[in-house]
Amino acid sequence: MNPLFGGNTLKLGLFCTNGSGASQTLAPEAHETSWDMSLRTAQAADRAGLEAVVPFARWKGYPENNPGHRSGRVMDPFTWAAGIAAVTENIGVLATSHAPTLHPIVAAKQAATVDHISGGRFALNVVGGWNKPELEMFGAPLREHDERYDHLAEWLQVTRSLWTETDEFDFHGSFFDVVGGVSEPKPVQPAIPIMNAGGSPRGMRFAAEHADLCFVIVHSEDEDEIREQIQGYKRMARDEFGREVRVWTHTAVVQRDTQAEAEQYYRRFSVEQEDTESVDAWMRLQAANTEVMPPAVLQAMRQRFAAGAGGFPLVGTAETISERLGTLSRAGIEGALLTWVDYDAGLAAFTRDVLPRLEASGLRAPAGPSAASTDRAEPAVIG
Ligand SMILES: Cc1cc2nc3c(=O)[nH]c(=O)nc-3n(C[C@H](O)[C@H](O)[C@H](O)COP(=O)(O)O)c2cc1C
Q1: Pairing of β 177-181 and β 92-98
Q2: Helix (H) / strand (E) containing 96
Q3: How many secondary structure helices (H) and strands (E) does the chain include?
Q4: Is 371 a residue whose pLDDT tops 60?
Q5: Cis upstream peptide for 185 (omega within 30°)
Q6: What residue ranges line ligand 1, CB within 6 angstroms?
Q7: What pTM was estimated for this model as a whole?
Q8: What pLDDT, in 10s, does the model give residues 159-177?
Q9: Which of 58, 118, 210, 334 is within CB 3.0–4.6 Å of 74 for a Cys-Cys bond?
C-alpha cells in the first residue's frame, strides 16, 4: 500500500530537501544541499508518520552567469530517491522527471528500480519544464507552452506502457518512436502513482487527465474560495475525463511561540534577507515561461516565492498552523507539502507541537500501524 493513499484525511510531506530547500534567502540557517541533511530530515519525517518526501528536479540555478549559486545545487531526484528509499521504512518516496531531459525508457526503469528498493512506496512527479536556461543546456529549445504538455502526455504514455506491457511493443507518436519496447523488472505496484503540478489551464487539464495527485497554489485566505478552487479542479477531472483526483498544495512553515515572532521571522528571511538576484531571475523566468497566474498576481506573490516557492504560508503558533491546515483540509485539500528555512529545527517543532493537534482534531492518526490503513482505492492499473 503506497502511503500516499493511506488513511489520514490530511496527508503531509517534505518538499525540496534534495537541494537548498524552497526558500530563496540569504539567511545563514537555511537548508544546505547535503546528503546528511536529506537523510536526517527524511528519516525524521518517516518516524513522524508523514506520507511523502518529494524532491524537485533542477538542472541549473536561476541567476545568470552564477553557476555556483545555491539554487542550482540540487541533487538528482532519482538517485536521491533510491538512497532515501533504502533508509526509510514507511514514507512514500518520490522522484521528479523532466520529460525533455530523460527518455521514458530510462525513466521507466529507474522508477521501477526505486519502487523495488522502497517496497512499493514510490511515486513520480512529472514536469514539462519552465526554467529555459536549464533545458537549453540539453541542446533543445524550450517547447511552446502547451506543446510541452502534449509532449509530456506522450512521454507518460510510453513510460506507463513500459511499466505494464509484458510483450514487446512499438510506439510511433509525434515525439517518440519506440521499436520493440520493453522494460523489466516491472514496478512492485500495479500502477506507480503520478503527481503533476501544472498550474496553467493546459497544465491543469493535463493533471486532471493523467495524474493521481494534482497540485494547486492556494491564493485565497477564504475557506469557501479555496473550496471552489479545489472543487472546480475535481469537477473538471470528473466531467471531462471521468477521473477522481486528489488535490494537494505546498506550504511555507514558520512556527514560533507567538504570532508576532513568527511574522517577524517570516519577514526577516523572505524580505530583509531575500536573495534578490535569485528571486528577480525566478520571477523573470516564471513570467516568461509559465501561465499559472497573470503578471500582476505573480508580482504580488513575490514574498511567497522568496519564502517557499509560492507555498501557502503557515506562519504562527502551533495552534494557528494546525487551524490553517484544518481550513485547507475542510476546503478539500488532501495533502500538504511542508517546507521550512531550517528543516531540521522546523520539522522537530512541527512534530512536537502541530502533529498532536492534527491528531486531536481527527485529521491524522498518530504515527504507527493505524496510519497505514486505508479508506481509499489506489489508482487503477493503466494499460
Ligand atoms: C509542488 C510543485 C512541485 C514542482 N516541481 C517542479 C520540479 O521539480 N521541477 C520543475 O521544473 N518544475 C516544478 N514545478 C513547476 C510545475 O511543474 C509547473 O511547470 C509550473 O507550476 C508552471 O505551470 P505551467 O507549466 O502549467 O504553466 C513544481 C510546481 C509545484 C507547485
Answers
A1: unpaired
A2: strand 92-98
A3: 14, 11
A4: no
A5: yes
A6: 56-57, 96, 125, 127-131, 197-200, 203, 215, 250, 290-292, 337
A7: 0.95
A8: 999 999 999 999 999 999 9
A9: 58
